[in-house]
Design a protein that fits this description.
Helix content is 41%, strand content 20%. With 296 residues, it is of the alpha/beta class. The strands form 3 sheets. Strands 3, 4, 5, 6, 9, 10 and 11 form a 7-stranded mixed sheet that branches. A two-stranded antiparallel ribbon has the order 1-2. It has a two-stranded parallel sheet with strand order 7-8. Helix 5 links the parallel strand 3 and strand 4. The termini are far apart.
């Protein structure tokens, strides 16, 4: 006989017996008579064509080999059901099923991780979709509705479609490998820095395409990935600016040195939140956007 699909109630009874150790204790947990629990398990075993418990000669029901094999799947079904119910409850209360966001690659990872850890605890039923982009690509993703909101770097764009709010800044530090010629110079003038290859983060969107942000060198290498830029700096293939938190350990360990460029005293990379004015944010997205903006 082909096995028949068990009901969710039968799975719940099965798990209750395993967790409490007896039919009677499972009945008390579920608010049912022991006979009702026994009947539910007998039907489950009949439908599956398997004996799940050893009853004869045992003071407490013990799982058979088949019962142990079924147990993990039973728990998986129960967890999936609990998640479905929790998500449905969240939706009826106005919570989003998913929050999508995009953040600037310059944003310190510690800041993002801290906010997302709190988000997970506060909104356990809400799924998350995170993108990391550079420069204008953050705002472009919001405009294209690929993300509900973003935490973008400096971008001068006037649009009635966008709502922008200041969200702090990170200090940019010019660095190079200790063996780089600029690292061996006591005082680095802008004229001197201009003669060496500068590694520059470039944009993958049309919003800031062709714009030079912080470029002083005559010759530059354009990179679309901040991780690649960091790797090339450590390898000594040029000089460039990086967010302070990202290179603080490299400077401490001697893998990179800070360049004392005369015109680069206190350069800040400013962030702001951005979302479409015609797309109101739900409670989870609003909380996360405010939390990211607040963390400094």
């Amino acid at each position: 006989m082909e096995p028949k699909a068990p009901t969710l109630d039968q799975i719940a009874v099965f798990l209750a017996i395993v967790e409490t150790g007896s039919f009677a204790a499972a009945g008390r947990r579920l608010g049912r008579a022991t006979s009702a629990v026994s009947y539910a398990i007998a039907n489950l075993e009949s439908q599956l064509g398997l004996a799940l418990f050893v009853r004869a000669g045992a003071s407490k029901p013990r799982l058979t080999e088949a019962g142990r094999a079924i147990l993990s799947d039973g728990r998986g079904l129960a967890m999936a059901l609990d998640g479905l119910i929790a998500k449905a409850k969240g939706l009826t209360q106005g919570l989003e099923a998913e929050v999508s966001l995009v953040v600037d690659v310059m944003l310190p990872a510690r800041r993002v991780v801290k906010a997302l850890d709190e988000f997970r605890g506060r909104f356990p039923t809400v799924s998350l979709r995170l993108r990391v982009e550079a420069l204008g690509a953050v705002t472009q993703a919001v405009l294209d509705r690929d993300a509900l909101f973003g935490l973008s770097g400096p971008l001068e764009i006037a649009s009635d479609l966008l709502v922008q709010t200041p969200a702090g800044a990170v200090k940019l530090i010019p660095v190079a490998h200790p063996d780089h010629p600029l690292a061996k110079t006591g005082k680095v003038t802008s004229a001197l820095a201009r003669d060496h290859v500068q590694l520059v983060l470039t944009d993958r969107s049309s919003l800031t395409a062709g714009r030079d942000l912080g470029v002083v060198a005559v010759k530059s290498w354009r990179l679309a990935d901040l991780g690649a830029k960091h790797a090339l700096l450590v390898a000594g293939l040029g000089w460039g600016s990086m967010p302070g938190p990202m290179v603080s350990d490299d400077i401490k360990r001697g893998r990179l040195v800070r360049l004392p460029i005369d015109t680069w005293d206190d350069v800040q990379y400013h962030f702001h939140t951005v979302h479409r004015a015609d797309t109101p944010l739900g409670p989870a997205a609003s909380w996360l956007m405010e939390r990211l903006a607040m963390e400094r």
